[in-house]
Structure formats: structure tokens, C-alpha cells
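Narrative progress, year one. The postdoctoral researcher (J.K.) led the effort to move from monomer predictions toward full complexes, under supervision of the PI. The following entry was the first complex the group processed end to end, covering 251 residues in total.
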Amino acid sequence: MHKLFPSQLADEQIYLIIREDWVYLFLKVLVWIFFASALVMFNRFANANLPDLFVGTWGQITSLFSQVYTLFLTLSLFLIFVFHYLSIQIITGIRIVDIKQEGLFSHTISELHIDKIEDVTSETNGLLGNIFGYGNVFVQTAGTVERFEFINIPDPAGVEKLILDLYEKNSNFAKDAENNS
Amino acid sequence: MNLSNPTNLLIAGVYYVLTGILTFFSAFGIYILIRYGKSTPLAFTVSVIYGFLFLTILAQSYNTLNSLLA
């Protein structure tokens, strides 16, 4: 079985896998495009106005600078993808798992059992959030981590409803088990 | 590569430091993507494509450095 997180059980049903909304990824890529276009604009401008920069020794220095800058751009685009891809929230039948990749050297996994939930709040703020339907979900807990935060996720109201439905289902299941014993 | 000239030495030093850092971050990025991405096809494909692209540009830059410092 392909596990999404280390403690996943074999029969544990996965209801939802959430990543940051595509709008936020797009905004990060937009910033990257700005830096990439800086290189393109430099080449165009310098070719037109400073042609000596591309001839002889200076040409080689300019070429070297461009190549190292391209390495930097390639790496930054790759890391944008890595951080987006590896930061996920998973809602299963019995728990919520928050996996965060914060930087290259920090990978955090937090788990919250559904029956430890005290309160769930969803919010959609701002113009972009309302247009594209993304926002935040806050899960208040009775555990060590007081609040689980799902930031900039798609359809926060739907996620809130799902968590509450699972909480109800878990509560009913626990009550039935108690009555039967 | 002629490193007897202090200017050449400086250029080579800066180049190696910069590319060394970029290479380290690239390698570590690929490592964590494959480790935490659970070796899914997408993670693996992106890693291979990125690795190939990075090494190609790195090789080109090294050739440029060599011809600059010759």
C-alpha cells in the first residue's frame, strides 16, 4: 500500500487530500516570471544599447553571469514546486494530518484524531479569495497543538463541513460501540 | 584554466562557491522530493527532468568559465 504518511493504517479511508490553492502557486510563479523576464530584458536591452558587453572577454563574462543566473532561476522554480507538492493536508476517517515542508530542512507532520476536535472555523477573505474560492480552515483541538491551521486551501467551507461530518460520524460510532458493550 | 592571475582566481572562486551552493540545494531538493514524495511517478519525473536541466546548464557554464580563464 502506498502510504501518504507514516502512521497510515491499511484500512484507513482517505477522504480528502488538500494542497495550497493553485492561485497562490500561480502568484509565486508570477514572481518567478518577473525575475526570469529580468534576464530576458537585460539581454535585449544590452544587445541593443551595449553591444560591447557581448563581445570578447566581456561577452564571456556576460554569458557566464547569464548561465549562473539561469541556474538560480531553475533551482527556484524547482523549489517552488517541491514546497507546494510536499505540503499537504490529509483528512481520513479517523484523523487529520498536516504535512508541512517549511524550507529545505524542515519537514513537519502533525496528526489530530477526529474525536479530539473542539471547534472548526472556515474563512474566506479578500478579493482573490472570494473570486477563486480559497481561504483558511482552523481546527481547535484538545491536544498538544491547540489549533490546526489549513491556510489558503480551496473550498474551505466544504472542508469544514467534511471535518464536522466525520466528527459526527465518529461520535455516533463511539456512542453505538458504548451502547453495545 | 589559468589560476595564476588573482582576477582569474577570484572569478573562479566566486563561480565555484555559487555553483557549489546551488548544486547542494538542488541535490537536497531532489532528495527530499523523492523521499517525502513517496517516489510517486510525478516526483520522480520532475526530479529527473530538473536534474538533467540543471546539469546541462552547469556544464555549459563550466565550459564558459574554462574558455574565460584560459
